[in-house]
Fold:
Amino acid sequence: MCSSTLLNEGIMCKDASLGRLSTDISIDSSKAMMETQPQNSHSSGWGSFVTNFLLAAVLSVFVLEFSLWFPFNLPGIGSAALKTYIPAWYHYDEKDTRFDNTAWTYNTDYLLTAVMSVLAVKILMASAPDNCPKKNGASLRLRLYSASLLICYGISTLAGGWAHQHFTTVDSLNTTRFRIFWYLCVGNVSFASCYMGLIGREVQKVFGVPNTVPLGPWWFWPVYGTYMAAATGLGYISFKRPACDIFIAGITQFPSTFYCLGALGIRKWPSRRERKDDSPIGLVRLSYRIMYYVGFIGNAPLLPMYPLLVQYTSMSLAGVNTLLHCWLMLMWGMQGISLLHLCKAMSSYKLKAD
Structure:
């Protein structure tokens, strides 16, 4: 009897000690997992940062090289491009330099600045009809990015107009003052890719179909835009005809342009029978979607058009510049109006206030 009792007590003590041991092991395992998890998360975050930064760097270098190669290899305009796109590195001469100083050129530049400024202000003020702070906050980033894009355009044309009006000799083009003004003109077009990419990212987040267009980190497009602006400042995008700089800077925008198009375009649009208030996309009208697509891709024909006009037609530089500025007015205007509509759609979306 005593031996049986002692045996049972021994078994109970053994079970209790095993229980404490298993509890201690589970606690230690939990602690180990909690300590390892932040390390794995930190390692994964660092790896993602390096991958995205390398991708931005590779894309930037590739696109710049492609932009400098592409005009000379377009079918039908190769010979015209060779005569037009002559590298300058901000050093101009009497032989090849052409820079128009007529009122038609700089006044249409100033007109572009005024229109872009008005659109930028209207976008910033695109608040909800009931002025609900929560709705207004939902559209804030898109409004800031869209207004910044138009301000880039406005600064570019303002600096360009001033340069066309006041730098009237080849000697004046070789001054530091001209280089600063022309960098403001071309550099803002180069850096505009930053805001285009951020617009596309925000459009994808709000209006896009999940997992169709990658978001990436927010800093990806600023890195890309900064690289292009730096390349412009160093003279990689500089030609004897300064107007050529704008077209090369425009080519560098093609990744961010197609990103914007894909963010809004890759989706199934709601039919007329479907409820329009299930998503903010239901508030985006077809006419503004078309305006958005055409506005962002519509400047592409200017690339082959410019060398053909200056080499194979009798149009004056003033006429060519005025035509191109009117084209820009139409395309940039459509960008601004369609983005204004998207901002209003976000601000008016009733579920944002819930």
About this structure: DSSP finds 13 helices and no strands in the chain. The two ends are 73 Å apart (CA to CA). Confidence is low (pLDDT under 50) at residues 1-7, 21-27, 32-36.
